[in-house]
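Problem 12. The chain below contains 413 residues. Write out its predicted structure in C-alpha cell notation.
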Amino acid sequence: MNIKENVDEGLRSIQSNLLRTVLTAMIIAIGITSLVGILTAIEGMQNSVNSSFADLGANTFTVQDKDANNRRNGGRRKRIYPVINYQQAGDFANKFRSEFGGTVSLSANIGGAVQVNYQSKKTNPNINVIGADEPFLSIKGYKIGLGRNMNKSDLENSLNVAILGQEITNKLFPQIDPINKEITFMGARYKVIGVLQKKGSMGGGTDADRLVIIPLANGRGLAANRALTYNITASAAGANGEEIIEAGRGLMRRIRGDALGKEDSFEIERADAMAKNFEDISGYLRIGGFGIGIITLLGASIALMNIMLVSVTERTREIGIRKSLGATPSVIRFQFLIEAIVVCIIGGIAGLFLGIIIGNVISNIISSGATFVVPWLWMGMGMSVCIAVGVLSGIYPAIKASRLDPIEALRYE
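Solution.
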C-alpha cells in the first residue's frame, strides 16, 4: 500500500467518525492558534515599532534632563541636577550646527493634561502641548497629513498657530476640514495650520495622536512665569551614530560645565533605543509564547493518542482482515500513523488561519496602525510541530495495531 492509498484510507476513516475527528482536530487547532497567534501578535508589534523609528536613523539622539523619577537608590538619595534651560539649549543648537553641520530641534513640554476646545466640542484633559521649532517634525519622524508645518514667519513672530494630532482632529472635527479653524486651550486661541498623520502610541514617549504643537517662543509666553525644561534633538546626516552621539555628549558637558571625571548632568537617549529595547523584550516574549503553544499542543497530543487507541480497538476486526489479505505490520503501522498526521494537519491548517487573524487583531489593539503580518517562519514551524505531534500521538497506537494477532483479531466482536 503506497502513501496515497494510506492517506485515502485515513480520510475514509476520518469521514466515518466525523464528529470525533472534528473534536480532535479542534483540540489541535486551539494549540496551533495559541502558538501562531501569540507569535504573530509579537511580530506585528515589532514591525510597528520598527516602522515608527525607520525615518529617524541611528545617528539621531535627544539630550534631556537627568531622570529624577527615582531620587533614591539603595537607600541613598540621588543627586538632583539643574534642568536644561533655554540658554543652554540654544548654545548647544548653534555650536552643533556650526561644528558638525547637523540638524537640531528644540522643544519644551508646555502642558501635559490640557483640554482643547472647538465651539461646543472638547477633548478629554489628556492632551500634551509642546512648543517646538520648524525642524521638530522631520527630526522626530512626524509627518504632516493635512495642511502645513510651521514656517519661519510663524516662529519669528510667535504666532498663535497649532498643529494637531489625529485623535484631537477626529474628536473636534469629525466631518469638517480643521485647517484655519480656531481652537482654544490654556486660556488662549490658536489657528489650526496642520494635522499630523496617524502614528500611534508605539512611536515613543507621549502619544503622537494626542499632541498639540505650537511655536516654541509662543509656548514660552504661554507658560508665563513657569520654568520650562528643554529637550534637544539632534542628527547629523552621514555621520557615525556612536561618534556623533559622543561628540554631542562632550559638547553638552562643556556647555553645562560638568567637571572632568564626574557623571553627566543630563541624559542622552538614542532615537532607536525603544525599538532596540522592544526587540530584546520580544525575544523573551517569543520564547514564552512558543512554550505556551507547546504545552497546549502536548495536551492535544494526549487527547489524539487516546482517540487513536480507541480507533485501534474499534477496528480490530478490520486489522485482522487486512493482515489475512497480506498486509504487513509495517503497512498497518504506516496506515495508522498517516491517519494521526492527517488529523493533525487538518487541525493545524485551521489553527494557522485563526492564529494569524487573532494575532493581527491583538497587535492592532495594542499598537494602533500596525500592518497586517503573515509570519511565514512561524507558520512553517507551527506545521512542523503539528506533524511532530501527529507522529508522537500515533506511533504507539500504530505499533499496537501492527502487533495484533490476525486470528484473534478476526474473532474480535
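Discussion. Confidence is low (pLDDT under 50) at residues 68-75. Students who got a different answer should revisit the alignment rule from Section 12.3.
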